[in-house]
Amino acid sequence: MSVHSEIKKITTETLRKMKFDKEKITMLTAYDFTTAKMVDAGGVDSILIGDSAANVMAGHETTLPITLDQMIYHTQCVVRGVERALVVADLPFGTYQSNPEKALESAVRMMKEGGAHAVKIEGGKEIEDSIRKIVNAGIPVCGHLGLTPQSIYQFGTYKVRAKEDAEAEKLISDCKLLEELGCFAVVLEKIPAALAKKASESISIPTIGIGAGPDCDGQVLVYHDMVGMNQGFSPKFLRRYLDLYSEITGAVSQYVKDVKSADFPNDKESY
Ligand code: KIV
């Protein structure tokens, strides 16, 4: 008899079926082993090693500076902590846009060295050839449309995207293209709820929203935002489930007091 516990792993097929069954999909980011273990134990369906690691882990203003080697390192750490969730890793800026061969090389490194189960890349029609090349190699691809942070210098702002008809129409046609190309899901970031609903109804692969309203097939948040570690970031779409910034700074300041006053360590805490 096997000594391994029977954990049913989530696959891209599971997510497809969840959309079909109208069961909402949950996704959160993680960038390290310990967090990934907790997020997986909490029952999330998918863990995203987002290039938001550039912001929350490294303190950069945008997601652009993070490298493929750094994303691979974060992915390796997360994979070691996950038993159940589908692990999706972002390909960072500059590693897939220039040509399909480079895109495939980056995706292969992320799967082989990082141990990801799938990759996520930003954009639609413009990166069609890269998506096709990666999918044809047997690597599951999650698309990302709407506010795509790797294009922030082109957008000039983090405001809601696709409020105008032309951008909204392009988003719907990009969603259909991503489905045709074989993507298994698409993240929709910061777009009007009505447009996200229309997008979700127009394709059979799941949409996973962030700031895209309640009618997406699933939701994703950045872990550090939802547990309240990132005090300065309060967009309308964010729901905070904890106030860890206050909890942690409070605990640290109590530790400082205890050491300074020689209260810690006491006899029971000494050998
Ligand atoms: O990098 C990231 O964390 C993301 C999510 C916000 C979807 O792409």
From TrEMBL:
The gene is panB. It catalyses: (6R)-5,10-methylene-5,6,7,8-tetrahydrofolate + 3-methyl-2-oxobutanoate + H2O = 2-dehydropantoate + (6S)-5,6,7,8-tetrahydrofolate. Mg(2+) binds at D51, D90, E122. One of its GO terms (cellular component) is cytoplasm. Pathway: Cofactor biosynthesis; (R)-pantothenate biosynthesis; (R)-pantoate from 3-methyl-2-oxobutanoate: step 1/2. It is found in: Cytoplasm. Catalyzes the reversible reaction in which hydroxymethyl group from 5,10-methylenetetrahydrofolate is transferred onto alpha-ketoisovalerate to form ketopantoate. The active site is at E189. GO terms for biological process: methylation; pantothenate biosynthetic process. Homodecamer; pentamer of dimers. PANTHER family: 3-METHYL-2-OXOBUTANOATE HYDROXYMETHYLTRANSFERASE. This is 3-methyl-2-oxobutanoate hydroxymethyltransferase. Keywords: Cytoplasm, Magnesium, Metal-binding, Methyltransferase, Pantothenate biosynthesis, Transferase. Pfam families: Pantoate_transf. CDD domains: KPHMT-like. Its cofactor is Mg(2+). Its EC number is 2.1.2.11. It is an enzyme of class 2 (transferase).
